[in-house]
Here is the input.
Amino acid sequence: MTDAIVVGCGFAGAVAARQLAEKGKKVLLLEKRPHVGGNMFDVLDENGVPVHMYGPHIFHTNSLRVYEHITKFGEFESYEHRVLGFIDGKFVPIPFNFKSMEELLPQEADGLRKLLLQKFEGRERVSVMELLGSDDEKIRRLGSFVYEKVFVGYTAKQWGIPASQVDSSVINRVPVVLGYDDRYFHDTYQMMPRGTYTRIFENLLNHEKIELKLSTDALDLMEIRDRQIYFEGRPFDGAVVFTGPIDELFGFKYGSLPYRSLHMEFERVPIPQFQPAAVVNYPNDNEFTRITEFKHFYKKGGSSTTILREYPMPYDRSAPKGNIPYYVFPGEKNAELYRKYLGDAEGIKNLFLIGRLAEYKYYNMDAAIERALEEAERIF
Ligand SMILES: Cc1cc2nc3c(=O)[nH]c(=O)nc-3n(C[C@H](O)[C@H](O)[C@H](O)COP(=O)(O)OP(=O)(O)OC[C@H]3O[C@@H](n4cnc5c(N)ncnc54)[C@H](O)[C@@H]3O)c2cc1C
Here is the structure.
């Protein structure tokens, strides 16, 4: 007899399943893909380098609780992520910093640096919107330059809409660093697994009270009628932790929540190194947004290397397998649609929604883990 059903085996589902199992609950974990790990699933290439099958994943968190929890299930090595952008034929640091400015605007960089330090005294970073809104014309021009070269093309590719239509919350997050710090993240803990993420999931799920069923769409077995969850045709009153798309759970009764998808194109290149950094963004050239070369994450050698090009594309749930809902579309209209589904979900006392799909929210891995820890506590 199952005490709890968990749908989805990304971090949200796997962490919740483990917590419930440790409290003595018998957990049935259903995952529709043929593997564990959700979007963190990775496999080794011929050089023993983990290749992230759903895009590059770097673990970073400020939460001691998340750090302590996840490191119980696998070894990690510290790793500080740095990203380059290929702009005007040069590789420059992203986020845009003083080095990027010197590379791309060599004549003006000296003056601009002094001006920025004076105008934004004491600040380590500003948003491109602040530059655009400055009362100094030179700073406004720098703002336009960064906006055009770093943001406009990348955004149009990423979201499939002109930058002018992108939610202002996205533009407000585009930073310009007032210094030479070229780290992509600033969290206290920044690391990569010593082996694979997949191994960490295997460790998380290695518990006698967890029964895992892969290649199983929970919605073929489960349905909601009159605020009651039915599993295999019978009412189920144990906890149901759902980490899949909330609109699917409710049969799209209020309409579909939109997502952006990605086509992942992997290539094995017969040279020791393809590019100067783990991730290079292509804001203005090519149809892909970025190339990841995995061996940089792990400081591994080998005479060949695996790279990944990411091509953004519309999400189409009726398309053949592989079209995956990756990014939620921010904005009030979609948030309102989500709230309708949430209203229905809140009427079902044994239903718990966790993760990026069920909560229709961009979550980093650490936030998904934290939510799973919180909700598992709430279940008890
Ligand atoms: C390209 C990309 C790069 C990213 N990089 C980073 C990064 O560097 N660092 C970081 O912290 N975060 C990163 N993230 C975010 C990270 O992927 C998420 O935080 C993480 O996936 C959230 O885990 P989750 O369990 O909520 O979702 P998922 O990993 O998507 O897991 C949900 C699972 O539910 C399954 N499922 C759905 N419906 C059903 C159903 N009906 N029946 C059974 N199973 C079902 C799905 O198949 C999936 O496996 C990135 C995201 C993307 C898209």
In short: The domain at 4-80+192-258+328-379 is CATH 3.40.50.720 (Rossmann fold).
